[in-house]
Amino acid sequence: MGWLLPVLVATPAAGALLLALWPRADADRVGPLVGVVVSAAAALVSVVAAVVAWGREGMRLESEAAWIPSLDVWWRAGVDGISLPLVLLTTLLTLLCMVALLRGEGPGLGSERSLVALLLLLETGVIGTFVALDLVLFFVFFEIVLVPMWFVIAIWGDPKDPAGRRRAATTFLLLTVIGSALMLVGFLLVHTYAGSFDMLELAANGGLGMSTQVQLLAAVAIGLGFAVKAPMWPLHIWLPDAHAKAPTVGSVLLAGVLLKMGTYGFVRIWVPIVPEGARALAPYLACLAAVGIVYGSLACLAQTDLKRLVAYSSVGHMGFVLLGIATLTPVGLNGALVANIAHGLITGLLFFLAGALKDRHGSAELATIGRGLYARSPRLAAILAVAAIASLGLPGLAGFWGEMLTLLGAFDPAAGLPRGVFLACMVAGGVGAVVTAAYFVHVVRRVCQGEPSELDLAEERPQAEASTRELATWSPLVGLTVLLGLAPGLLLAVTDPAVQVLLGAGS
Amino acid sequence: MTSVQTIDWLAIAPPLLVAVVAVLVLVVDAFTVGTRWRAAGAVSLAGLLVAGVLAVPLVGERRETFCLPAEAGSACSFVVDELTLAFWFVVLLGTAATVLLSAVGSIDERVPTGEHHFLLLCSAAGALSIAAARDLATLVIALELVSLPAFALVGLKRGDRRSAEAALKFFLVSVVATAVMLYGISLVYGTTGTMHLQGIQEALAEGVEASAVLAVGVVLTLFGLLFKVAAVPLHGWVPDTYVGAPPAVAAYLSVVSKAAGLVGLLVILSQGVGEYGEVWGPILAVVAALTMTVGNVLAIRQRHAVRLLAWSSVAQSGFMLAPMAIVADPRAEVSSAAVDAVFVYLLIYAVVNLGAFAVVAAMARHRPAGAIADYQGLVRRSPWAGVGLAFALLCLAGLPPGVIGLFAKLVVFQAVVDGGLGWLAVVMAVNVAIGLAYYVRWIAVVLGPVGDDAEAPVVHPAVGTAIGATLAAAVALSAAPSVVLGLLG
Lengths: 507, 489
Fold this sequence. Notes:
The structure holds 2 protein chains of 2 kinds.
Chain A: H1 4-21, H2 27-53, E1 60-68, E2 73-79, H3 84-101, H4 112-131, H5 135-144, H6 146-156, H7 162-194, H8 199-205, H9 212-229, H10 239-245, H11 248-273, H12 275-301, H13 306-326, H14 330-361, H15 366-369, H16 373-376, H17 378-391, H18 398-411, H19 419-448, H20 454-457, H21 468-486, H22 489-506
Antiparallel strand pairs in A: 1-2
Helix pairs in contact in A: 1-2, 1-4, 2-3, 2-4, 3-4, 3-11, 3-14, 3-21, 4-5, 4-6, 4-11, 5-7, 6-7, 7-9, 7-10, 8-11, 9-11, 9-12, 10-11, 10-13, 11-12, 11-13, 11-14, 11-22, 12-13, 12-19, 13-14, 13-18, 13-19, 14-17, 14-18, 14-21, 14-22, 17-19, 18-19, 18-21
Chain B: H1 9-31, H2 36-55, E1 63-67, E2 76-80, H3 82-107, H4 113-132, H5 136-154, H6 161-192, H7 197-206, H8 211-228, H9 238-244, H10 247-271, H11 277-300, H12 305-321, H13 332-366, H14 378-381, H15 383-397, H16 403-418, H17 422-447, H18 461-479, H19 482-485
Antiparallel strand pairs in B: 1-2
Helix pairs in contact in B: 1-2, 1-4, 2-3, 2-4, 3-4, 3-10, 3-13, 3-18, 4-5, 4-10, 5-6, 5-10, 6-8, 6-9, 8-10, 9-12, 10-12, 10-13, 11-12, 11-17, 12-13, 13-15, 13-16, 13-18, 15-16, 15-17, 15-18
């Protein structure tokens, strides 16, 4: 079954190529349709991969072939419990985005063919990143997503602000590239001393051949690359603008899967391959993660735009993920992986909803959206309420378990890490969670509840209820959020064995 | 010294043939009327092709000629080895592309065709010679053979004052650099008593008395070559010269002339003054860092296509200079990896930069002002030119789908990290991002919606061939990077 992952990576790319070569006349009309078919095919392949690999020990579906022997670069791919849920999340969210594009997502998007082709290319990059087991291959896939995302934001972003969307796209691109170029330097440093790009071999050797100083340097360089992507405070500065200016599908994929490439890199590469460096830097990562949680939630308080609000809440949520990773314990890492998936589902949903509201009202400003959404479009409002409550981490929904486990991990970090620091981070994380909760409750009260003013009910205001297509797009995310909230064991049963292997090899 | 030397005619055949064809072009041009570019271009291309064929039997062996007698150390002035052949390939390729691009300049009749091709091939003969030169005198003569026709090439546009000014500026800076280089060579000769690189290497290994003088001599010698590759602080001539010259000549300067400087540097550093690596290594590392940073930062502001490519080519020089700083590393595998990295980067840069210049040459006829804004929506007006330019720029930036550009950068990064220059790798990482800022802006213009100018540029078939060939090469290499990266190691 080794061919399954190459097929999975190639499917969206082939779809993108097909669209690029499609005869001109009806390309924009068939574009989204081709997108749905191709991404559904990719989703199907990923489900087959999941059936084969779910819950099994170790790497599955491995494939290996020499790519550039002179540089010691190989095609090496495989999935385990760490990457598999992320692959599924990616194919699911891409498919939903394609469905959302089917009838034209909002007015005036235009040239759907190019948009769909770019999103498919993006999907190839993300899946490739999650299945790559060679550092250079990982790097190449990591970079593939950049140019498509730049175009998605710069061309299909906020139609009212061409200069702003271009600036947001470029900031995103440049910061990420500085990070990933430094990450490449780190990879090469590893190769110089440990003599391999093979991620499994390097992880099994746990830093063999690298002195503590080399590991520290490599961990800083590699960590910076992932920290920009994740993003970690204070390197998050590209994120709010990119989210606010991106089109809905761009925001969904950016938050839902692109950010995960950073945290996944921390788990897959940073922790096991440069273990001593990671150990030395873990307390700093924890502190910055805690600052991110508090900062993200405080920044939420100052937002009046729903998309920016969700973007800042992402900084906080990713702070929890990073805190979990920094503990270097099975509990913390499992928490981080669960929080990763939960964030992808919930924030993806929130961005779909924010985008839907923005399309209806022309702006995602809370004041423009008005009050009393329950009365005006009850189904939309109900789903928004569920998503907001899931995002604030209510027990019983997916957001709760990840955050609880990471805080639990911080309570008892790995041996040798300064416990006092982690306890302080845990307290800060708890405070941040409370502030976020306060603000999401406020949003629900402000937008969903209350009496619609006469202005809100005026004839010329769009009152459109969620369409069937929108409900079809959102309901899988709602369903999974509830499912993971009620039975987190489903996910933990997959991640835990892989995490145990990962940490067992490092020590 | 009375004995008549035997000359290995096969080894010197390629540069010799190119020089002969240069004269032939002049003659052919004098006797043709009408479609002048076609005759001169065809003869030039045929000559370059035959030169390439003549080089084929040399593959895999080391040929030496113009050697000293055995009692004088048997050092040779002209050596054809792997490195030489590799650079010959780039020079022949680059010159052939330049001939194709010259079709545009010849059409508006302001560039005299015969003279243009004569000068071009003379300069190319110099570039071929420099890759085989193994003594300082041959090296300087070959370098001047590259430069002197190049001044004329830049200033050949009839009645164009900007072109004349560009040529003069280029000439003056070059003369100063050559003078400094000759002074350095005289110091090296004075302290070691030999011009041959092999002899210098031996003298350095044994140790010389006036080592401080020698160190100064070595650094000054490198000066003239750093001018050729447009390294900071000898980069000032680049933008004005490129903008003033016809696009074909700018392409030639940015690829072939630069390759000549690079191979000269490589040969001197790795086969001559390696012993003094601790003197020039750090200097070169700093020069490389400055070159890429200055080039990139100044490129950001440019609104003119050729000026932007000029600064970008300065920045790219910085990436090629970076591994030079470690070519004298005592670890053999590190130093040979550094030499390979320079070559691989140069080869990939040559292909994609020629691709970019080919599109610029096509557009120069359509909109002579050459503003980047003129490229608005090019991909919809002229799909091949648009795609060709966008892909070339992506490769120059080093981002997928321009995979081959990414690997060019990766090879250089690896050499630098292996050589222990971590700080330089960090500077390079930051520069990758700065470079991306302006490449991606231009790409966005090319791929964006059509603006006021919806007219498709008329692409001359010769230029179209150059665009198609470079695009095909770049795409093929991106799909199978091991073709070129297999040359490593």
